[in-house]
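hi! just following up on the protien thing from before. the input was this:
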Amino acid sequence: MGINIVPWSKAWKLCSQSVEPSDTENNSNFSVVINNYQHILAMAFAIKEINENSKILPNFTLGFWIYDSYFDAQRTYHTTLLLTSSMESFVPNYICDPQNNLIAVIGGLDPETSLHIATILDIYNIPQIIYGSAPVMQGKTPGFFFFQMVPREALQHEGILSLLLHFKWTWVGLLVMETDNGEKIVETMLPLFSQNHICFTDIERIPVRHLQKETEDWLLQIAKIYDKVMASTANVWVVYGESFTMAFWRWLQYIPEVMYVMQKPKGIVWIMTSQMPLASFSYQRTWDTEMINGVLSFTVHSSLVPGFHQFVESQNPLGPKENSFIKDFWQHAFSCVFLTQVQNNGKGDTCTGEEKLESLPGTLWEMSMTGHSYSIYNAVYAVAYALHAMSPSRFKHKIMADGGRQKSPYQLLWKSYPFLRGVTFNNSAGEKVSFNKNGELAAGFDLFNWIVSSNQSISRVKVGEMTPKSPPSKGFTIHEHIITWHRCFNQAQPLSVCSEECLPGSSKKVMEGRPFCCYDCKPCPGGKISDQKDMNDCFTCLDEDYPNKQKDLCIPKRTNFLSYEEPLGSLLAFFALSFSLITALVLGTFMKHHNTPIVKANNQNLTYTLLISLLLCFLCSLLFIGQPQKLTCLLRQTAFGINFSVAVSCVLAKTITVVLAFMATKPGSRMKKWVGRRIPNSIVISCSLIQVVICTLWLSSFPPFPDADKHSVVEEIVLECNEGSVAMFCCALSYLGLLALVSFTVAFFARKLPDSFNEAKCITFSMLVFCSVWLSFIPAYWSTTGKYMIAVEVFSILASSAGLLSCIFFPKCYIILLWPELNKREQLTRRKN
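and the predicted 3d structure came back as:
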């Protein structure tokens, strides 16, 4: 029983007019795409292997028919109906030859052909295996399920995207055919590429070249596209076409010669899809191939099939088993005619049959199996293994179900597609072949680089691949070091960007009215960096880091605080200890001369209290120096506030004591009963106690704690004491300021008392110094950052304390030590004349 697998070769011929299949031998007005003859040889070789292999289909012989669609829907429908009827006479839906059974059709390379075939085959439930792109079925009938001997289309899109991202080509052009599939590619690729920051500078649609269409009109449209491509700033173009597109695409290099165009040719990196094999018309054998030098082409994955090379070499147009296509192929491939044609028309060289296929240029013929031929080879095996998978018992059951009527089992076979969908086998190249759930080949794509040598021969070098892995980036591999670029790039990697890349330390600023791939570069603002090229925005370093001067790197901040080791801390500590020592000496001097009139004159105990509080004020400034600890944070502000409150309270008490003493000396004054220690002591205790209460509330509610200030100083992490509650801190300072203001006011009004009783002048001047220091402290403190805030506060403590010490006590020490003769009662009670 002869079982036929009928392949569909859309174009091993490209005819310039409609020709009946039976008339092709007598019609010479057609141009042949010679490369497609390999598709026929791949099918013949596969069927030859299957028929010689007794393990696959031992009781059956496979055959095949081949028809040409001539790029014409009417011809496609006609020849498809021929396949479903008897070969001897065209009677649709009638088969009188039980020896020839149509069990599958291998569809054409192009989507439209496959769609036309499916319209007929869907009626008969005959499967179609296509080795090109599936047609766009949306809104069309029938909803036929295709088996595709090519991987899923989305995988090729991911491969192109990975290729562009690998070379950082973000400014590319797109050429598509003006077909439904071309529009589908635009709709699919545009959002995918945009999501990955790749822009299409231009999207040009190549008009379909119908054979009946006037060549001049078509060339005019191509010339417009040529101008746009050459004027574009993109150096990389993605071309999505069909099986014959490459042959027409080669016309681009001659557009400047045959048509008027504005732009001069330039080097371009062309990225071809798998639908565009390396193909040429026979008349293009001598055309310059420089244009396709450096092309990067995705093709359906293929491997070396053992024996195919020898099978191709064995083809002989004069052999006893020549097929009906080989003579036409031979004549167009070698530009010769066989003896009978020479005698008829006297044109062309004579074909000897000894010409070598290896001598043909790469644009016309390849000895190794191409991706599409490999798909056809696997398609034939897929049908054979699906037949093999059917068990004899299933055939028998089906025959009995039909009442025992004698039907070929294969007439029943293709009503169940799962046998083909579930087929899995290892081909002779050692690769596993299977379909996924969508009827697509579970395989990947190879990436080839087309290299033109000096003698215009072309070689294809595999430089990468795209395998179906997840994520897609892991499935893409490329060996860029073996890629040969177009000569105009001087073998340097081409660039294709709208704007020069922004270096680290800057970010992109999109140009108004331009695609997002076009941008300016702006430096990062203060406090931010960008550590990569072409960043959309700068970012802030971590709190522990700060930007370098170039704003492209985050540097770890150094830890800092007001320490004893640094000059500023050492100097402040030195002054604190020095003033403490001086205060202690003054206190010792006063205690030694405690019986002298100048010491007794103004409440001796009040004087000692003031000196001790000043001594503690000088010493408490040391709590502000050194690394902050929990204890020092708790003590330093409260100790400073309480000690200064005591000191200022003593000053206030001394001032009031002076006023009361003067008023008590007046005749008949009733103020004598207020003169004594009770009033000054009450003032010191009550005023100090208020500050103690404020500090106690502060420590019990929001106590200070060690903290790290990471923001005030750009390059430092300042270790400091967090005051806990700014409000309580301000309350303590405000109360201290209030005491100072009251003391200054009282002393100011008492400054004109007689000299003998006038300590008020010294107190007035001391409070003037005190208030000046702390009024200057407020803006200085809030305008500084880091450890210098602490230094300002320490300096204010030392300066104000030193002001009180020097203005109040140094004149008395001067008298005690240097002018003891003035330290007498009569001198102190002497009034001003």
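The longest helix spans residues 630-664.
Residues 567-706+715-829 form a domain with the Rhopdopsin 7-helix transmembrane proteins fold (CATH 1.20.1070.10).
cheers
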